[in-house]
Write a structure and sequence with these properties.
The protein is α+β, with helices and mostly antiparallel strands. It is about 25% helix and about 15% strand. The chain is globular. This is TIL domain-containing protein.
């Protein structure tokens, strides 16, 4: 019986840790949000959003920050600058 309660305690602890990890707040630049599934294709930028895209994928990239819907990167080389709404692109 002792072995059963130990295994149950370990499983419960793992579930709690996974829940906490999933709900952890990730800090992302302005206009970006944390996603468990990021795009594999390069993020659009102010310079590229109106050009044809040759990348398409339904697969998930690694968890991380990505631009919010209708936002694009200000500058791909400086992603820490964040994302802005497309209509605000210069």
């Amino acid at each position: 019986m002792h072995c059963y309660s130990t295994v149950l305690s370990i499983v419960l602890l793992c579930c709690i840790l996974l829940t906490v990890a999933r709900n952890a707040t990730k800090e992302c630049p302005n206009g970006a949000e944390f996603r468990n599934c990021t795009p594999i294709c390069p993020e659009l930028t102010c310079d590229s959003f109106d050009k044809p895209r040759f990348c398409f994928s339904l697969r998930c990239g690694a968890p991380g920050c990505a631009c919010r819907s209708s936002h694009v990167l200000i500058d791909r080389a400086n992603a820490e600058l964040g994302c802005i709404p497309i209509e605000e692109c210069p």
